[in-house]
Amino acid sequence: MSVRSPAVVLGVISVLGLTACTVTAPTARLSTPVEGAHFSVTGWVRFEGEEFRFYGNPESDRSPFSGSCVSGAASRAQMDQARQGLDNSRVTISARMMPWSGRDGSLIRHRGSVIRNSCGGDTVLLADDIRPAN
């Protein structure tokens, strides 16, 4: 079910630091993705190295450490494929959140990709899928 209510969006903003997004959640009452639970979110993506920066709107990519993005990565193969045609595009990402405090040193490894958290947030996205948004 695709949820687009302001309450749901505000819950995601507090967790992901985004300004606008669409969340696909198992129930309409879910206001914040539960750590480790799978969810989908729609916004804009920019690729940098082995990770992506995910934004709630296309103007938010002006300064990565402004709190307007969340870092993440998918498998290396998925990242290579997505990087070819989706950089700076509106996408839907299926992922789960991981706290940055759970990192090993200054990075998190996810399916062959390395997340360095260029957005500087408290959480990162471990993506299973990155697709063009409808």
Fold and architecture overview:
The protein is an alpha+beta fold and 134 residues long. It has one domain (2-132): OB fold (Dihydrolipoamide Acetyltransferase, E2P), CATH 2.40.50. 16% of the residues lie in helices and 40% in strands. The chain has two helices and nine strands, in the order βαββββαββββ. A five-stranded mixed beta barrel has the order 3-4-5-9-6. A two-stranded antiparallel sheet has the order 7-8. The longest helix has 11 residues, at 6-16. The protein is globular, with a radius of gyration of 13 Å.
Low-confidence stretches: 1-31
Distance between the termini: 15 Å
% residues in beta strands: 35-45%
Kindly report the average pLDDT value.
74
Q: In terms of quaternary structure, what is this?
A: single chain
Q: What number of structural domains do the residues give?
A: 1
Radius of gyration: 13 Å
CATH topology-level fold name: OB fold (Dihydrolipoamide Acetyltransferase, E2P)
Shape: globular
List keywords for this structure.
134 residues; alpha+beta; OB fold (Dihydrolipoamide Acetyltransferase, E2P); five-stranded mixed barrel; two-stranded antiparallel ribbon; 2 helices; 16% helix; 40% strand; disordered N terminus
